[in-house]
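Title: Request for sanity check on Lipoprotein prediction

Description:
We are preparing a figure and want to confirm that the structure record we downloaded matches what your pipeline produces today. Could someone re-run it with the sequence below and paste the raw C-alpha cells into this thread? We only need the C-alpha cell string, no images.
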Amino acid sequence: MTRPTTRTRGGRHGAGRAAGRVRAAGERAAAAKGRLTVALAGLALMGFGAHGLATHLDLPGWAVWFAGAAIAHDGVLAPAVLAAGLATTRLRPPYRRIVQAALLTGGTLTLVSLPLVLGYGRRADTPSRLPLPYGRNLLIILAAVTTIAALTAAAHALARHHTTRRRTHRRAARRATAKGGTRR
C-alpha cells in the first residue's frame, strides 16, 4: 500500500498558504512603513523642541528645572511607589491593587501640585497670580481619590460576599440531593 502524496502545487490548501504568506509579508511591510513614519515624525518633533530650547529659553534655568524633575522622580516618586508596593504586600490581591492605585494617584497629584500649595511664584503685588486655595483643593481631590478607592473596595467585597454565599448555597443543595433529600 502506498502513501498518498501531498500536493505541493495547486489545490486549495497550497494556494491558501501561499496567499497567507503574501498577505503576512504585506502586513509586515506596512507595519515597518508605519513605524518608520512615526519615528521620522518623532525625530522632527525632537528637532523642533531642541531648536525652541536653544533659541527661546534660558538654558541654565531649564537645566535646573529638568534636573529637579529628574531628582523628584528618582529621589521621591520612585522610592515612594516602591515603599507603597512593599507596604501593601500583606493585603489580598484585589484590595492590594486598589490601595496601590489610590496611593500612586494621590502621591502623583501631591507631587505635581506641591509648587502651587507652597505658593512658589506668588507675589504680593500681583494677587491674580496663584489666587486659589491650592492646599484645600488638594485635600478635596485626595479625599475624592480615597472615597473612590474605598467604594471600589467595598463593591469588590460585596460582590465577593454574594459569590461566596451563592457558592455555599449550591454546595448545601448538592449535599442535600446527594443524601436523598429534596432540593428546594
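Thanks, this matches our download. Residues 8-57 form one domain.
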